[in-house]
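Worked example 2:
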Amino acid sequence: MLYENFLDSIRLEVEKRLPPGCRVSLVRVQKNNGTPFDGLSFTEKGSRYSPTVYLDAFYQEYLRGMSLEHIARLLIQAYQGGQPVPTRQLEQALDFEMAKTNIVFRLINSNANRDRLGALPHRDFLDLSLIYCLLVDDNEDRQMTSTVTLEQMTAWGITEEELYQLSMENTPRLLPARIEKLSAVIERVTGVPVTHRENDYDLSVLTNQKGLAGDGCILYPGILKDFADRTNNDVVILPSSIHEVLLLDLSEPVHFSELNKMIQMINRAEVPREDRLSNHVYLYSRTSDRITIPAGTSACDLTL
C-alpha cells in the first residue's frame, strides 16, 4: 500500500474505534529543516488540547507486516496514554504575563528553514537563526514546547527585542548547560570503556541538562569563555546536531576543511535531517569572545 493510501486507511481504521465525542484528523507538520511529519490529531469535544501521534514509524511497521487493525489499536493507546497539558499552562499562550518567564530560544539553520522563518520572530546569528519557544511543560519524562509565531507576538503586544532579552535570561535558567568529555558520555551510554588512540581528537559535549535542543548553549553568557580559559586556547565548535555540539580545544593546528567533510559525512549517514544544525565547524575566539565561521568555508557547505 502506498504511503498516501496508508494515511487515509489508518485514519478510517482509528476513527471507527474512537469513543463518541472524539474526532481524528490527518495533519502535516513542518518540523526543523523543512522536514514534514504526518500525524493523527485527536480532539475531544469541549477540549482545547489536540494531541498528535505521528505516523511515519507506524508506516514502517506496516511495511514489515503489521496489520492496520493492530496499528490502529497502538495509535489509540498512544493517544489515551498521553498526559493532557494542564489548562493553566495552555493559557500561557494567551496571557503574556503568564508566558514571559517560560520563553526560551532555540538555534536552527537559517538556509534550511527559510520558508518557516517567514512566519516566526527570529534573530540571525551567522548562518543560523534564533527562534523563540514557549516552554509549556517540562519534567523528567517529556519536554513540550510551542514555537512563538509573529501572530502570537503581535497578540502579546511585544517586540522581537523583548523576546530576545527574555529568552536570553530564561533559557540558561530553565535549561542549564552541561559539558562532559565525549569519552565519558560514550562510556555512560554503552557501558564500554573508551580506548583512546594517538590521533583521536579530545572532544567535549556541550548541551543542556535535558540533552534536547541544547545547541543554543553556545550562546549562554560565559559558557565558551570559561571552557576556553581552562586551556588558554580558542575552541572549535563541531555542530553534532540541534541537541548538542562538540567542543575541541585548539591546542594544535587543525584542518577546518577536513573537519567540515567529517561533519557532512556524519550528517548524511547518521543524523536525521530534522536534527541537523550545520555542515561546517565554527570557531570561538578567546580573546574577542566571539564565534565566527572559519575563513574558506564555502557557500555549498551551508546546505543541509
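Residues 10 and 68 are 6 Å apart (CA to CA). The first strand starts at residue 22 and ends at 30.
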